[in-house]
Design a protein that fits this description.
Helix content is about 45%, strand content about 15%. The longest helix is centred in the first third of the chain and has 22 residues, at about 95-115. It is globular, with a radius of gyration of 19 Å. The protein has 12 helices and 12 strands.
Length: about 350
């Protein structure tokens, strides 16, 4: 199959590109705008690969998307392109609406007019909103509480409407908090790992008891690929690891793996509307044969080791635009914070 992966230079996208290419008959075209979190260093090992091609472009550019789909004879699209960080969405919501909703609309139109065989919309568990108890099922109402999750919920509903209205074979995956190598260091785990390596403060929001289900990126990609191949069009599939941990516990695990002191922790002012808990019911994807292969402990150990051994990758990132972003997000919070417990 000839597959277009959008956002393939990002975190999940780059791992997915590599995973799909492991199938000997698969050709992958990667369309990425290379904004701040898109990084071709994530795919250096694919330079010169006979079944891989990179196209630099924005999914909101309808002419480029349409031309790429037709000229590359694309048969399936996996949309990983998105603005994904809640903190950024709070201060810059417009960009999230543009990429996550408008961009998805452009891709769906290109898929519809070209007769694409499969369209997978890669989404998030955050569309279900805060889950005080129980686990979210695919049939549950969507109740997003941030501009990021609202933009992803909008894209989900738009994508599924193309199945109902046009018969486009759309599928949606909703993954839980994903982590692993090559993740842009604005996200919780890579931020705390890299800060701890450099003995910098770890800005832990509020009481640190916000709970997330942590999914290793390789497991996430295997789930997406399975839905692409075997999922039922018009359906959504939850992808979670069942590895729920409060942020404070994850922080302490990171410090333990690096041999660092808890005095690095700073409890900072929480972000507005911070959801306390996400949890997924993954019975539906299990019927297709998917279960996570990596425990949280072994996956976190491998992730910490990767950042420790690849400092050049993240130090280059954290020396650029990231510095202004970090000061904007955490500067005042850290100056006002109390020290570690």
């Amino acid at each position: 199959m000839r597959i277009l992966v959008t956002g393939g230079a990002g975190f999940i996208g780059s791992h997915l590109v590599r995973h799909l290419l492991a199938e000997r008959e698969t050709h992958v075209v990667n369309l990425d705008a290379l904004r701040y979190s898109g990084n071709l260093d994530n795919l250096k090992d694919l330079d010169g690969h006979a079944r891989y091609r990179f196209v630099h472009g924005d999914i909101c550019d309808a002419a480029l998307v349409d031309r790429t789909v037709r000229e590359q004879r694309i048969e399936a699209i996996v949309n990983c392109a998105a603005e994904t960080h809640v903190d950024r969405s709070i201060v810059e919501p417009g960009g999230f609406v543009r990429t996550d909703v408008v961009g998805t609309s452009v891709l769906l139109e290109a898929a519809r007019t070209a007769g694409i065989r499969r369209f997978v919309q890669v989404s998030t568990d955050e569309v279900y909103g805060d889950v005080p108890s129980g686990r979210s099922k695919e049939s549950d109402p969507l109740a997003p509480r941030s501009p990021y999750s609202a933009s992803k919920a909008g894209a989900d509903l738009l994508a599924l409407s193309y199945f109902t209205t046009y018969g486009l074979p759309v599928l949606v995956t909703r993954g839980s908090n994903t982590f692993g190598p090559n993740q842009y260091p604005e996200k919780f785990i890579p931020l705390f790992v890299t800060n701890a390596i450099e003995d910098q403060p770890l800005p832990l929001y509020g009481d640190g008891l916000q709970q997330r289900d942590w999914l290793y990126v390789q497991d996430h990609c295997e789930g997406i690929a399975l839905v692409l191949g075997k999922g039922e069009p018009g359906q959504a599939y939850n992808l979670g690891a069942g590895e729920e941990r409060p942020n404070r516990e994850v922080t302490e695990a990171i410090l333990g793996l690096l041999g660092k002191s808890r005095s690095l922790v700073r409890h900072v002012t929480d972000r507005p509307g911070h959801d306390r808990r996400y949890a997924l019911d993954c019975g539906k994807i299990a019927t297709l044969g998917w279960t996570p292969r990596f425990s949280f402990g072994e996956a976190l150990k491998a992730t910490v080791a990767w950042y420790r051994d690849n400092a050049g990758w993240w130090q280059k990132i954290k020396s650029g635009e990231f510095r202004a972003y970090y000061e904007k997000m955490y500067g005042a919070r850290l100056r006002d914070a109390q020290g570690g417990r």
